[in-house]
Structures are given as structure tokens and as C-alpha cells.
TrEMBL record:
Domain Damage-control phosphatase ARMT1-like metal-binding: 451-586, 605-719
Protein family according to the UniProt entry: In the N-terminal section; belongs to the type II pantothenate kinase family.
Compartment(s) where it occurs, according to its Swiss-Prot or TrEMBL record: Cytoplasm
Pfam families assigned: ARMT1-like_dom (PF01937), Fumble (PF03630)
Name of the protein: 4'-phosphopantetheine phosphatase
Binding partners and assembly: Homodimer. Interacts with PKM.
The organism's place on the tree of life at top rank: Eukaryota
Lineage of source species: Eukaryota, Metazoa, Chordata, Craniata, Vertebrata
Transferase keyword on record: no
CDD domains: ASKHA_NBD_PanK-II_Pank4 (cd24123)
Cofactor requirement: Mn(2+); Ni(2+)
Protein purpose: Phosphatase which shows a preference for 4'-phosphopantetheine and its oxidatively damaged forms (sulfonate or S-sulfonate), providing strong indirect evidence that the phosphatase activity pre-empts damage in the coenzyme A (CoA) pathway. Hydrolyzing excess 4'-phosphopantetheine could constitute a directed overflow mechanism to prevent its oxidation to the S-sulfonate, sulfonate, or other forms. Hydrolyzing 4'-phosphopantetheine sulfonate or S-sulfonate would forestall their conversion to inactive forms of CoA and acyl carrier protein.
Keywords: Acetylation, ATP-binding, Coenzyme A biosynthesis, Cytoplasm, Hydrolase, Manganese, Metal-binding, Nickel, Nitration, Nucleotide-binding, Phosphoprotein
GO CC annotations on file: cytosol; nucleus
Amino acid sequence: MTELWSSGSLDSGHSMDKSITLPPDEIFRNLENAKRFAIDIGGSLTKLAYYSTVQHKVAKVRSFDHTAKTEGDPLYEISMQEEMSARLHFIKFENAYIETCLDFIKDHLVNTDTKVIKATGGGAHKFKDLIEKKLKLRVDKEDEMTCLIKGCNFVLRNITHEAFVYVKHADSEFRFQNTHPDIFPYLLINIGSGVSIFKVESEDTFERVGGSSIGGGTFWGLGALLTKTKRFDELLQLASKGQHTNVDMLVKDIYGGSYGSLGLTGDLIASSFGKSATPDKEFSKEDMAKSLLHMISNDIGQLACLYARLHNLTRVYFGGFFIRGHPVTMHTITYSINFFTKGEVQALFLRHEGYLGTIGAFLKGAEEDNPNQYSWGENYAGSSGLMSTSPDLNPMQRARSGTFDMLEMDRLERQLVNLPLLQDPSSYIPDTVDLSEDALAREYWLYCFEEALDGVVKRAVASQPDLPEAAERAEKFRHKYQHKLQTLRHQPFAYGSLTVRSLLDTREHCLNEFNFPDPYSKIKQGENDMALKYFQKAVKSLGELSWEQRQFALVRGLLAGNVFDWGAKAVSDVLESDPEFGFEHAKLHKISLFLPLTPCYVVFQVVLASNSSPALNDVTNSELQILTERIAAMDLVIQSAVKEDRLTLVQSGSSSPCLDLSRLDKVLAGVVRERHVDLVIIEGMGRAIHTNYYAILSCESLKMAVIKNSWLADRLGGKLFSVVFKYEVPPGHKTTTLDHVPVTPS
């Protein structure tokens, strides 16, 4: 949650906190390019959505004319170019601030082509005249429940770790779920004033199968009568401090203990408010609020279970203003679901459940652009992240009053899908370690990323020597990423499961935010030039080896290439202190130059997948295309493989040093399917250890990397620069050519 900017006061009489300093243009970002608007106004919160185009720098590589190339000229040239990309902005704030926010939008809205704002929610009618007066836009009302379900489908499909199970008192209170490749069917329990229960079978097929008049409004209304507390959040705070057993009658209060023959434990509630009729006894507001919350949550939980069983559904999502991320609410619903289904059904909550209506309204207004044909990704640099609302669980959490929450999503250039060779996509977990649940690992990796920040800033500035403002932008990057790391230290669940991959992705998002698309571009350029010089000499030496020697040389060579990793401090320290360190030095580690293709391998069809966008010093597809073109000009075997389409270069769809096999370029997935790929090689510490170490494929796989982090090496029972070489064959699968290659596990 992000505090409102410091200035003035509101017409409604709510004074703003004078200590708040965040300017409004950091909340309503890229507003000058906004093209479409949608708004969802509830009883107390407003959610605004808009689509904008964002101008940012991209690093482009272009091959030189090598017919005129002289000794010492680089392989390709690097240029910074401006591009436009699409971004969705979602902002949530209290209704008390709606007029101030509308005024700011009116003053900064440049695009006069926008004529309509899609609106949903109960407050859309109440504020219709105000919106039309302030923004000069026509309010077009959309069905609330249709918007809710469209929004739910969108976040489940596009946001990693959107759904979670809430576990009270656990080291990580949020247990995030993997995104199932097929999100349908599911049950959505929307708890607003009442309860509506929807069975969702496809993008456009859903029905309201039931509901109840006993919902959030009941809790609020009865709570106000019992406690004289009128604010919903204050009522929940009272409940979080209460002890319901002082008001509720338990099984043991009636039977003196458990009722064994019926399977009822003594601490189960036998009668909500059953003790309140006790003469001459006063009950605290906190205890009554807690009893009321249990009564309504248990009722909703039992109702949800009955409908889940009736429709044979196991995925049950809860949303609505009654939830709002409050731990005490999520815990009581979770307990109820577990009790009534004996653990067969889990209560699932959503990180962005408060945005579902406005996302759906936006999608309705953008149907002509068909946004569902694209893949979208959460931009960690511009999103607030999930915050715990319990002061006890999160001492950094600001008061809910006067706060803003933001979600930003970028439209990805390429549509992303599952790797067809995942044995079970629904159980695939990309990351090896969940730092949310491992406090020791979490603190170590957060420290590592903080310690590496100076080096990243230095590289960012060095990558743009002709831009004098680069140093200032780099300092802004440092400040933003440091703030993100501090947030994640206190709230590791902010963007889903905290992993090394998410820390790397957050850093890349922040670098791009301040126009540093490829800080390691010049380093890669030099490394690629050097590798090209060694190519013919290395091929010749490999050709002189026996078959068995050649196999080991290939493995040693691949691992040698993996040593040159600027993301690993143990390596970057050496490379910084000794610029002459190169492949010859790597051979001292008993590994040599990586040459993925030699004459003995051309009988294979090889699909070489590389990053679509830059990350650290990993080669990108555009760079690899130029490299392969130059190698083909030097080597007839490679030339023939390229010409006959036996060597195919494809984008992975990734812009990370890690790899999520559930979000790969659709074109790559198609090539894998068409070519009947039967061996997958995953190389590198990020792709084969931080991610995919436990990934199970339906074909043979080889995962290999050099461990360039001493802490990680110790965790895995090895030493710095130890080797992981993991060859796996699915049960009952006949091996292909690798059964002739001697492999020694390390």
C-alpha cells in the first residue's frame, strides 16, 4: 500500500497526513498516455483501471557488414532505441479521496480521444454525475458479476502465484498455488453485503448457482449494533483481539468434553452467542465481534462446501469486500472449509481480489483489442504487492486509512504457454527453494542482492557512457530496488512466493523502469567476440579426440561457458579484478570452451532456445542469430545444419536468468511439438538449479551447471565451483543416444 501525496485536505473533511511525500504522478503513472478507463466503486473503496502506452529504451544489436570487417572490429553494434509498449494500471483507494483523484486525472489527461469510462460496482450510480462532470467522460455501466468473473479469469491466467491458501501462525502465512494450465471449472464465492456463489466453466460460461443473505453486510450491521463501531475495518480489528469462547457455547460446555461417538471435539462451537444469555454478565466488544465473525464465516464456509460437493468442484475461490486480505477473516473461512470437507477442499484466496471488478470492466471496454489474445505479466517495479493488514504480523504495515494500492501489468510481446514436455503441468513448480518458507535462505539471498547493488549500478552507468543523466537514473534505480528488498524482507509474500527468480525479475523490472534495458551489453559483446576467435581452433582440437574423449570435452566445455556469470559474486569479483580472465583460465578448473555443435552431432535436429530479452550477461536470441550467422560462414557443418533446418534458433519468451517452463514462447512450444523433441538440456545455475532442479519431463533431460555461490554449494553438500550434472529418464521411457554416453553423477 502506498500513502497519498502530501498536500492540502479533502472536501470530505479527511485531512491528509502531512508526513506523506509520495507525489501523485507516482500513483497515477503514465496518465498522459491513458487511452481507456474503467472504474469499480464499492461501498468504501474505488478501483480505477486505465490502459496506457509506455515509452522505454531497448537495446538493439545489428550485424556489421563483415565483408569490410577489419581486425579488432566488434561482431555487432549496439544501439539504444525508443519503443512503445502497452501497460495496464490498476489503483485502489478509499472513496473519501475520489474527488481529489478525479481532479488530478482531469488535470493530467492528455488523450482527448477517450470518450467513455466503463463502470461497475454499487457506487457507480452514486458517483456517475461526479465522474461525468470531472472527467467529461460518459459513464457506461457494466454488469457487476460479469465483470467480477472476467477479472477473476484474467488474474488466474496471467499472474503467477495469484491464488493462495492462508495458514495462520505459519512462518509464511501465505501458501501460494501454482497456476493450473486449465483454470476451469471453479467455484467463486463472492462475499459482499450478501453472498453469491458462481460456477465458472469457461471464459463466457458461468451461472449463479446459489447464495445467502448472510454475508459481509450482516457482519457489519450486527457488529455495529453490538459494538457501536461503525467502520468495517475497525470491527475486524476488534474481532482480531477478541476471544469467542467467552461468548460462544462449545461442545465441552454442554458435555464436559468431546462428543466422541459423533466425532465432535470439545472446542467446537455448539451454539454461536450461546453464553450471551447468561444473567448479569457483560461481554466485551472484542469478544462479541469475534463470535459474530466466526458465526458468519462458518455459515459461508459450510455453504461453499455444500455447493462444491454438489457440483463436484475442488477449486473454490473467495473474494469480495468481506475478505480484503484480512488474516482473521481468511483464517475463519479456511478453518470452516477444512472442517466441513475434512481437508478435501481448500479455501483459496486471491492476491488481487479487490481488483476483479475493475479488471473485468476494463476488459469489457477493450474487447475490440481482444486483450485475452496476449500474455500479460505483473510489473513488480510499479506494483504495491500484497500487504498483511495485521499490525501484529507486519509491523511495517501502514494504517489502511489514506492508503493507495497499485497493480501494473505489462503486455508481453509474445504469447506464453506450457512446455509440451512437462510431465504434469498442473504440479510443476519452477523454483527449487521458496524463500518465503525458509527464513535462513531468505535473509542470505536478500543480503546477496543488496551487496550486489553497487556493481549493478556501476554496470548500468557504464552501459550508457554517452548519456550524462545515466548516473542520476542509476541512483533512482538503486533507491527503488533497495526499497523493494526492504519490503520483501518484512513481507516476503508481497509478490507471491519469494524466490531467487522473483528477486532477479524484480531487479530487471526496476532496471527497465529507469531505462537500463541491458547493463551488460558491452560485456556480452566482448565475450562473444572472444568466443568467436577461439571457434576454429577448438573445433580442430575436438576433431582430433576419440568418441569418448569428445563427449567429456563437450560436457567440460559447456560447464566452462557457464562459469562466466556476472550474476554470481564469486565470478564477478574475479572478472572485475582480472579483466584478462578468459577461457584459458577456465581450463585450469579442468573444464574447457563450450562448443555445442561438432561434426559428430549433426545427425540430430537441434532447437537452441535463448532469452527473448536481456538479463545479466546471458545471450539473447538476436545476439545468437548474429553469432550463428558468423559461425556458419566459418564452418561448413554448421552452415549445412542451419540451411537444412537441423539447427533452429528460437526465442524462449524469457527475460530472466531463470526459466519458468510454464511460460514459454508459444512458437517454441510449437517447434518442440512439431519436431518431436526427445531430449531437453537445461544449462546454467539460474535455469537448472534455482529453477527446474526438480522439474519432471516426459522425455530425457539433462540439467547441468557450475555452482558459483559458496552458500548454495554448502546447502547442496558441495564446494564452490562444484558441478551439477543431472541426467534423468522418465519411468518406462526408452533412452535415445545418451545411453551410449558414460555419465558420472557428481
